[in-house]
Amino acid sequence: MTKRALHWFRNDLRLADNPALSAAAEAGQLLCLYILDNGPDRRALGGASRWWLSRSLDALGEALARKGGRLVLMQGDPAEIIPRIAAAADIDLVTWNRRYEAPAIALDTRLKDQLTARGISVRSFNSHLLNEPWQVTTTTGQPTKVFTPYWRAARQKGEPAAPIPAPSRIDALALPESIEALAVSLANLGLEPRKPDWAGGLRAEWIPGEQGAAERLDDFLTRSLDGYTEGRDRPGRESTSRLSPHLRFGEIGPRQIWHALRHARETGKAVGSEGDAEKFLAEIGWREFSYHLLFHNPELPTRNYDRRFDAFPWRADEEALRRWQSGQTGIPLVDAGMRELWATGYMHNRVRMVVASFLIKHLLQDWRAGEAWFWDTLVDADPASNAASWQWVAGSGADASPYFRIFNPVTQGETHDPKGDYVRRWVPELSGLSNSDIHQPWKASQAPLREAGVRIGETYPAPIIDLAFGRQRALDAFATIRNR
Ligand SMILES: Cc1cc2nc3c(=O)[nH]c(=O)nc-3n(C[C@H](O)[C@H](O)[C@H](O)COP(=O)(O)OP(=O)(O)OC[C@H]3O[C@@H](n4cnc5c(N)ncnc54)[C@H](O)[C@@H]3O)c2cc1C
User: Fold this and answer.
1) Whose CA is nearest to atom 45 of ligand 1?
2) 393 lines ligand 1 (CB under 6 A)
3) 307-479: which CATH architecture?
4) CATH number of the domain at 1-128, out of 3.40.50.620, 3.40.640.10, 3.40.50.2000, 3.20.20.30?
C-alpha cells in the first residue's frame, strides 16, 4: 500500500546522497518540509547563514519541482508543527537526517517518541558525516580527544558507502487546507537582508545550492587540488575548495566528496598528488573530528572544554572587540581577514587562526565573543567546527594548541602572504607599500609611507596594541591558570 511520507529537511539541502529523502520518496506520496526553527533553546542562525539558507532553499525548491515534488516552508517550533501535520495529513512515515547538537538531538528524540507513540514510523539516517560521532573510538571503545588517533581510526574503517543517486521522481502529497494555511513563501521567511541590503559581496562570491556545490567540487578537483598541501596555507591564492558553506547546509555530503575525489584520481581528471588528496581528506577529517567532539561534549559552543579556563582573566573591552570586528586594529593581516569576512562571509583558514589568536591572546577577549561574531558573519558558521576551532585556538579545547603558542600576526603575514597579495586586496589603503613594509606599516620609514599615501593614525590605524607587550600579557594571564 502506498504510504504518505514526510521528509523534514534540515542540514541536508540536496537531493543526491540524501538517504532520508530517498527512503521517503520510495515509500509513497511525499511532503518535503523545511521549518525555520524558532523554538526554545535553539541557537538562531546568524545573518550570513540566513542569507545562504534563503538562496539554498530557493535552489532546493526548484530542484524538487523538476522531480515533481514541492518544498513546503514553515516557520515555528517543529515540536508543534510536525505532529500537527502528521495528524492532519494522515502521515505514516517521517524521515530526517541526523543532527548532532544537543538541543537538536533532544528535539528529534522527543519528536520520534511522540510520533512513534501515535503509530507513525520515524526513520533517521546519516547524510552529514563519513562516520557517526560515536562510531570512531579508541581501541578500548572510548571517544578520543586527539585528532591523529581519531583520523587513523576513522581511516581504518575503510571507504565510506558509495553515495546514492537523487530520487528519480517525487510524487507530491496534496496537503489538507488546514496545513496549506501554515505554509509561508520564501520571501515571507525574511531571511535576506533588506534595509540595508549588505549581501552584495556574498552574492558576488557564492552560488548556494546543490548544483553550485557540485560545480565547486569539480572545479577544485580538476583545477586547484594540485599543490593543496602548501597552497592551503596561502590566503592570497584560491587553493582551497571553499566547500565549507555547501557542507554546512548539506548541499553536498562528505561521502560524495570522498568518492568524487577517488573517481577523479582513478580517471586521471584530478590534478595534484596523492599527498594533496590525502591532505584534503584529512581536512574533511577535522570536520568529522569537530562533530565527534561536539557530540561527546554538548557544551562545546558555550563552555571551556578545559575547565581551568573558567578562571581565565579575560578583559571585557567593547572598543577592542569593535575594532577587531570591523578590521580596524592596525595589524594588516588581522584587518584583511576581518574585512574579507565582512565582505564575503568567508575567511581563509590560516587567517581565521591568526585573527582568533589575536583576539584571544593579544587582546585577551573571551573566545566566545569571537565565536559569536563568526557565527553571525560566516556563511559556513557551523555548530561543531566553529566551536571546536575557537576552543582549539584559545587553548581551552580538546587537542588544543598549547597556551604558549601565540601567533605573531606580522610573522604569519610574512610567511603565508609573502608578497602581500591578500593584504593588498582587503586593505587597499596599504596597497602601495613594499612587500617588506606591508605587514608592519608602523615600522616603515617616512619616505615609503609618503610615497604609498599612508599616514599611520589617519589613513590606516596605528596598531591597537604593541605586539610584544600583548604577547607577554597573554603569557602572564595564562600562567595564572596553568597549575590549577
Ligand atoms: C577560529 C576558527 C573558526 C572556524 N569556524 C568554522 C566554521 O564555522 N565552519 C567551518 O566549516 N569551518 C570553520 N573553521 C575551519 C576552517 O577554517 C574552514 O573549514 C575552512 O577555512 C573552509 O574553507 P575550505 O572549504 O576552502 O577548506 P578546505 O581546505 O578546502 O577543506 C575542505 C573542508 O574540510 C573542512 N575543514 C577544513 N579545515 C577544517 C578545520 N580546521 N576544522 C574543521 N573542518 C575543516 C571544511 O568542511 C572544508 O570545507 C574555523 C577555523 C578557525 C580557526
Assistant:
1) 287
2) yes
3) Orthogonal Bundle (1.10)
4) 3.40.50.620
